[in-house]
Amino acid sequence: MIARLPLALLGAFALLLPARPALAQTPPVPVAMVAGDLRPGTDLTGQWHYSIDPYRAGMRGFHGEDANVTERRWAEVDVPAELRRNQQSLFEYDMAAAPIATLPGGWMTHAAEMRHYQGLVWYQRHFSAQPMAGKRRFLRFGAVNYRARVFLNGQFVGEHEGGFTPFAIEVTDRIRAGDNQITVAVDSAVDASSVPPPVTDWENYGGITRDIRLIETPATFVDDAWVRLTRSGRIAIDAKLNGTTAANALLRLTIPALGVTVSGRTDGEGRWHGETAAPRRLRRWSPEMPSLYDVTIEAGEDRWHDRIGFRTIERRGAQILLNGRPVFLRGISVHEEEFGNNPARAITPAAARALLAEAKDGLHANFVRLAHYPHGEVTTRLADELGLLVWSEVPVYWLIAWDNPATLRTARAMLADNIVRDRNRASIAIWSIANETPNSPARNAFLGALADDVRRLDDTRLLGAALLTDRSTSDGHPLMTINDPLADRLDVMGVNTYNGWYSPDRLADLPAIRWRVPTDKPLILSEFGAGAKAGFHDDRAAPQKFSEEYQRDYYRATLAMAERIPTLTGLSPWLLKDFRSPRRQNGWQQGYNRKGLVSETGQRKLAFDVLADFYAGRARHDAQ
Q: What pTM value is reported for the model?
């Protein structure tokens, strides 16, 4: 019998299989499950068993079989009862006896030996279900970093690539009444074809980092819905049903607080578009008044709902207009894992509120750049609630494999997932398609495809990217120039500039730096910053780098430079809090990027007040 069991790791899983189950030969068709986090369901977070698999034994048999062959062999094995009773003595892996971790959260905090582990980890737990006839069931993951393969009751049900966007897998035909076993293979390893690439400036938190839920829907349900205020002042709705009765189905949208009701029928593909005039009593969403409305769409037995704000965002020349009025973006960049001194990229509502409140209330910000990947739904929903405009981006970062069609497919899928998930968030103002990517024909074609996708998926927001600049000299002063052809495709140009930190410029000379940029487009200084170790002080007239005084003086000088750029419409300095970055290993950083205005333990540095005072003054000026 043992000779018939080629795979040690999945052998432990296979012991729980029924005899000769049917296999899913191909993954189910992906679903959008927009606002799935608000649907009723079973919470599958909490305690899971986990086991490392450094040799990837669970993906291949001893003779090099691929995973599909291995799964088929296991499904054909009738496991005797005596093997079930003695699995610990016969198999190298036993998930039932494996260590336990609390999910969601990156595995670096599961145990000390997991701190620097990269590769494959298996997670498993049991849950009880009572499926109802005529209902469909989906496993929805908020995010799994980086690749996931999901098994239910020993059978492969689906997979996903990308560490920051949600995915849902239908398991209607796989779930059973009573006890069920879910197993997830999580692979954090990335390579040259991945998005992001292997070398980044943040920690790669492998694991299941956002909520896991089992969602039950009617046989036909609202899979995607996008409700917004058009620039012409009308409320528009696009919805898509998923199910066998999706065609020619009746839908009704209601916004009770506004007395709005719109009805219509889907086309042959289950899609519906509707519009109505916005009522006069509609309060438009803004940072000063972040008004949200309960919105419901009824379709047969399904009832979809969300909390949505209505506003317009557009560009006019070098201005950004919010609800038709110019707005200056007083921002800060934020990493998702910036909470606690031992983060695991498991952002709770309380943690998200603490971060965004530090920006909104502490810095007087009206804008956050959520770098460098899609942040969780808990964060973007809270930005809606608090009144913070958002720059949202995908991790097309640094040196992507521009010539690789598979990499482009991955990036396009991530971008689409991000936009479809968050199109209902009033806070999202800018979709960013790249950060600090070097100019080349292949890169321009790659990012051109992403730009086209943004225009196709959402024509109500602004398209941006964080660009690099060329440096030269003019009349004895440094001259910063944007010579990037991508700028022609964008609504908003972001520029990352670190003059005075990564350049030999004296801080006193920064205000004299000149900028040559297109005059017909808004410019955001999407990054600038200087590192400082909290608590390290240097009171000399010329303080050294990594002191709080140098960071303070750097901010003063850079803000003086910024005020001389005529087309400047916003700032998002780098960044709110110190965060882990394994590539930074000097004596001051020791695995952290220290450019935060707040330390990883929550201590504000001197530069915090410099930026807060600047933004407070700017807010008073803009309110006049």
A: 0.91
Dihedral sign computed on CA atoms, order 82, 88, 94, 96: positive
For residue 558, the SS3 value is: helix
Alpha carbon of residue 584 to chain centroid: 23
Give the integer Cα–Cα distance in Å for 579 and 577.
6
CB 381, CB 210: distance < 8 Å: no
Dist. CA 510–CA 330, nearest whole Å? 20
Q: Enter the DSSP assignment of 361.
A: I
- HEC readout, 77-104: CCCCHHHHHCHHHHCCCCHHHCCEEEEC
Which residues lie across from 380 on neighbouring strands?
Answer: none
Tell me the pLDDT tens digit for each residue of 466-513: 999 999 988 888 899 999 999 999 999 999 999 999 999 999 999 999
C-beta separation of 138 from 31 below 8 A? yes
3-state secondary structure of 253: strand
Q: How far apart are CA 596 and CA 363, in angstroms?
A: 13
Q: How far is CA 218 from the centre of its chain?
A: 28
**How buried is residue 3: exposed, middle or buried, by Cβ count under 10 Å (0-12/13-18/19+)?**
exposed
Comparing C-alpha atoms, which of 466, 525, 461, 527 is closest to residue 315? Answer: 461
Output the CA torsion 227→141→171→195 (10° steps).
90
Task: Output the six-digit token pair for 560.
Answer: 């003086």
